[in-house]
Amino acid sequence: MPGSDGYEAVRERSSCAWAPRSQSRPDGLLGCAGWDGSVRWRNGERLERLFEERCDRMRARGTEDRLAVDADDVALTYPQLDERANRLARFLMAEGVRPGDRIGLLLDEAVDAYVGMLAVLKAHAAYVPLDVGFPSDRLSYIVSDASVRMVLSLSRLSERTRCLSAQPLYLDRVRERVAEQSPERPGAPAAGEPPDDLCYIIYTSGSTGRPKGVAVGHPAVCNFVRVASEVYGITCDDRVYQGMTIAFDFSVEEIWVPWMAGATVVPRPEGPSLLGAELDAFLRERRVSALCCVPTLLATLDENASELRFLLVSGEPCPQDLVTRWHRTGRRFLNVYGPTEATVTATWSPLAPDRPVTIGVPLPTYSVAVLDPERNTPVPPGTMGEIAIGGIGLADGYLNRPEVTEGAFIPDFLGVPGNPSGKIYRTGDLGRINAHGEVEHHGRIDTQVKIRGYRVELTEIESVLLRIPGIAQAVVSDREITPGTVELCAYYTTCAGMTVDPERAVAHLRERLPGYMVPGYLEHLTSIPMLPSGKADRRRLPPPTGRRLTAQGDGTAPHTTTERMLAELLAAVLQVERVSVDSHFFADLGANSLLMARFNAAVRNRHDLPDVSMRDVYLHPTVRRLATALTEAPPPAQAALDRVPEQPAAPAVGRLGYALCAALQFLAFLAYVCFASVALDAGTSWLVRGQGWLDVYERAVALGALALIGASLFPIAVKWMLIGRWKPRRIRLWSVAYVRFWCVKTLLVANPLARLTVGTPMYTLYLRALGAKIGPRTVIFTRWVPICTDLLTIGADTVIRKESYLTGYRARDGAIETGPVTIGSGAFVGEHSTLDIGVHLGDAAQLGHASALHEDQSIPAGQRWHGSPGRPAPAECEYLAVPPARCGRLRRVSYTLAMLLALTATVGAAEVAVAALLEARPALVHTLTGAGGPGSWTYYADGLEIAAATVLGLALLGATLVPALSRVLSRPLRPNTVYPLYGIRFTLQRAVARLTSTRFTIALFGDSSAIVHYLKALGYRLAPVEQTGSNFGTMLKHEVPTLSRVGTGTMVSDGLSMANAEYSSTSFRTAPAAIGNHNYLGNNIVYPAGGRTGDNCLLATKVMIPVSGPVRENTGLLGSPPIEIPRSVERDRRFDHLTTGSGLRRRLAAKNRHNAGTMALFLTVRCLYVYGLLLIAMFPLAGDGGLYWLETIGTALLELAFTVGFFVSTERAVQGFRALRPRFCSIYERPFWRHERYWKVPSILYLAIFNGTPVKPLIWRLLGVRMGHRVFDDGCRILERTLTQVGDGCALNAGSILQAHSLEEGVFKSDRITIGDGCTIGTSAFVHYGVVIDDHARIEADSFLMKGEHVPAHARWRGNPAVEPTTEAARRERP
Asked: Residue limits of the Carrier domain (predicted)?
């Protein structure tokens, strides 16, 4: 390692030669290009020795007359300053100062401070700089915390020292005694051996209200001043202004770096800090050529009159306009960055107007990485994360704060070169590494300001203010003006002799900033309050005294009656005196969707105004634009279309008819169970007579084949016997005809072969056998089996994607209505789409994902439509984009036969074996387990062992084997490669999709921190993860996990489907589906490969993801087709402290503990459930009479009753036997954690057994739903049962959802849902929280009724988001 002379030679030979370039390692660690890994410090070297070596070199060269300090009345050469320090050092030693002592410096004269600093170091002590402006309490705390032995001060400051526990030494009283000391250096023998390397302790602000002492050692500071003198370009001819108090480490840059270069330090005069014109005059008068300061200070100076050669800014973000103002040819202008914990400065960058401001690249000997804020892993370049620093420049830690030190100074897991501490410092600053290898600084992680839900960087607003002519300084702060109302307040000072017109300033801001960033107040101050560090003191900014700046357009009175009425209604909803007709609802007025839903309801209550929908609000977000749109809109659709049902309501069924229907359904169910029990009894009797396991397996395979074939043919036979051919008709609910309909529907839905063969030729054969007219080579992936099959016509080569509804019936107005669904050849129906009855798709027509066709809608041949209700899509939309492949009849037949054999040998045999063991033959259980019967403890113990092994084994296999199999099976599937259907790769893809979408495992890990690890194990690309404990819900689907990417900081609600496989009628291909960073996804979203959304998007519930057009970023999307909405959501500021810093870490840890308990409870509940089923199955009901089929019937009925009772009791217990109540809380608060437990631990899957029966509303009542009489529920999911009310005679169609909550970026909200009598909720419709639907209203299929909406009585709403159709809209939808 080179010695000090070598360092000096390098510095003088190559000053300014270091280029601002970086070099990056594969793991993301950034270093300085050209650095050889050596540090600029020798073992045992101390800071004062560097100064002494500089003095010696100057003597040797004959330049000892150069000034080290040039103060007002004192000018000292380097040797003179050295001698003064030597004398004081000897005096201190004589006064008892020992090596390792900590000596405070409380001085307001610069020369005394410099001499004292050097003297303390020469005595081998450490100095603790103090500022005379510190409050007494802070001074007392620092002296005590740092164990300061002596404080060097002046007698005029004796009032400041009286409260200190350390001994004061007033330098002005001992000057004569000090002057008597020898001017020779004390040297090591006289001073004694130092006990450690501590150089100084500087205190920084602490989050607890108490400052933290940062202990900096000689190796770190010696290395820094050497490196800085090499890089910065300060020369021996420079005169460097020193204006910062020595209590801040920025002063090290002002003092020690110039001394290393042999320059002259020019301290500011005594008194208050200099700003503006006073500082300008001082710099010119004292011929200062180099200035180091904060940008706020530089902004006060006149750039045109300055003669500065060197500028260095640090401590605050530097606005771009400041660079433009101060950049000159020949002037070196640097921006540096570094926390006190990394010894002053760690990165540097030259500034120029033609390049963006960054904090640059690491200094030589420093390294920088950007880490995941939640874990010790680097993030990829370009990804936002926490800036971390490594190298010899790291401080030793925080004095007397081991826990805080451990949290900030983490172990060096990256192997940073030249890093003797073995630590990496997490700065708490947000940043990223850009494409040029430079570090961008994006503010503090834990102090981000949020206004109306938007993240606001105050420096951006300040930068715009500073561009206004005449403004010298600008500071922006957030203030709570009234309880719950937070506003941005801007403060500014003006240049000498100039004024600023506030109205023009506001206009300037509005032209350059979004509305939510325009301050509500603009205050002129004579001076900005400053901290001793030179930064603006935001805490001392006065409260605003002027009037609030009106929103853009305020003062513009309404011009029309419609504008006036709308403005009055909106002001009442927002609880303000008035609103401008030109104010943006969201950006200017701070409204949110819930408030605007209330506004819409208020408008609908006015009969002299047209109705307003949320789509209208988002498309026309000012009163003026909305009034114009309403005036130009067509009139509401005719009453026959909107407020009166097309068909008269079916006559209501009385109590007797209702009870008769229930009895007939029960008898039908009992008959089916009896038939199955007799068949099962006969089959298992034959099965157990097998000799050896091989013979038993062969019999099981044969019996499984018969069972599958029988279970498949039986529904077909029943359909033809009870219905014949389906025809368009109305079937009165709860009638005998309805019972026939229900029997056929239930058998078709329960058919195991149908569920297992979805997406294969066998499935289409099955539907043809039921009467459907389906052309060759058509592929149907939806698991929602068409019911009225004779009314279904699908042409050749058509593709129907999964989760689509084309059932051919609907329930409304007391009846089941059946009707045709016609799809031409070569057509396409997207995922999560809904086809109502009476719709038609022409040949080669396409309907996009998350879309719907309502009754009488027709897509002409060759056209592409999307949306709900469907409408023509842009020309570039292409949903059937996979090229064809060779897939002939031989391949289809071979695949079908192979699949039948495989299902028979596996699924069929397994189902038979399970049924035989657990239901038909308790004696077999006795033989296998040795149980002694219900009177023996082993009977119960064996049952518990089997139950626990089953559930825990399933969990273990799901967590380990499924991810392993998923990755192995996915490996042959190359992205964007076209493969034919019904081959090996098709089989692998379908197997992966089924295997990895298993509901049990995702439900177990969902709504917890574990889900991200499970998904990464499956192959999801999630890194780096910003853990929230609720990154994903409990319902998630995908086609190929390894091609799924979800960006950093994204939260996903239940129901996401990653559609990363595309199909034609002959081929398929897999393709990546990537969701951007910092997105929020609502419920039930299909995200296709090639989705056109990027970072920072709010994707609302049931939104249709665009597949064409520009990539949407920094916005929100709502509806189908999507419209852009504000990205933000209104949030309560009281939750912000829970989402950052240590508060987040504590809350997340507590949430993880709670979620771990929830997962354990989830498994325990399922163990107990399986245990109960086993006990019932093992119980010998029939004795030895041989009527085991009666035992099977009894077992089935008991298990059904046990299932209902068990999960009802479980749900009530999880709720604490209390009803839910509306909530508004953070996801990091316990009420939300309990709600997650409520979602996860109970189950409502068993309710599907009771779809379409009078029993299901009874169970809903047991679960807490305020359910009316004779409600028809064909498969609705009610999530918050005790918050939901459903009136008499309602129809809840298949796939509908009543969800009384939302999660909006970490804030949980829930409220009640109220549905009146006789209402209809259409197939796959979604009703959000806070909704009121009045009597006999109708929500059509696939509609999304947004939160807070109020649907009037007899109204008909449809669409996503739902609105009342207009005549013109109805005409467009029916070409």
From this structure: 557-634
